[in-house]
Amino acid sequence: MTSPTVKTHKRILIWMTFLLLESTAGRSLSAAIPRNPWSVFLAAGTRIPQQEAVRKIYGTIQIPLQFGLQFRFSKRWAMDAGLTYLDAGGQTRIVGSELADENYRTRLTLGSFHLGVKHQWLLKRLRLSAGAGGGWNFYREKWPDAQILQKGDCAGFWTAVEGEYPLTSRFFLLGKIQYSSIPTGRGSELENKVNLGGVQLLMGVAVHL
67 with 23, same domain? Predict the structure, then answer.
């Protein structure tokens, strides 16, 4: 038979184990779910244009910079707003030119403002989200050697999935995959309808205020 003292010790051990596990889980959960609903982030990475014509001129890999603001208005949902900036150099050739080597330097500057909503959920300490929304885009393409300048603005849409991993109670490591569609409504010899959108792979840091 087990003595009352041994039973008491077992109960105390069980309760201590339970409290320790609960405390550890609580710390993990509090690290994964910030108390303040506002957060900002800064990220950079690579961008792959969706159209072959854009890739031919400006390359397969581009480097965007993105700044964003997020407001979590419920346990699962958040508003997301941000700015993306891209400056890429390229080279093109006049189609139908008599000179085969008549190439021109080009430079594309692209700025995009996006606004949308995201659905969030937790996977242990990792906070995942998926979202979509609309955007307004400003673009400028300059050919310095040929004194050509084209610019404009257009509406578009975006979808994204991302994850945040806590480094401290306020700083989170951010990883993001985003697709954006930027239909300019213009055409060229290479493409009837030019779309400057593409897929972005971003890494950065989010700060929960």
Answer: no
Residue among 175, 181, 174, 184 at smallest CA distance from 208: 174
In this prediction, residue 30 carries a pLDDT of 46
Does one domain contain both 102 and 178?
yes
Q: What is the pLDDT of residues 38-63, one digit of tens each?
A: 999 999 999 999 988 888 888 888 99
Three-class SS state of 114 = strand
Give the pLDDT score at 14: 58
Round to whole Å and give the CA distance between 138 and 144.
19
Read off the CATH number of the domain in which 43 is found: 2.40.160.20
The full length of the chain comes to 209
> Is the pLDDT assigned to residue 178 strictly greater than 90?
yes
Question: How many CB atoms are located within 10 Å of the residue 203 CB?
Answer: 12
The secondary structure of the chain in percent helix, strand, coil, rounded to multiples of 5, reads 15, 55, 25
- In contact, 209 and 191? CB cutoff 8 Å: no
Domain that holds residue 96: 35-208
Q: For residues 22 and 12, what is the distance between their CA atoms, to the nearest angstrom?
A: 15
pLDDT of residue 29: 43
pTM: 0.75
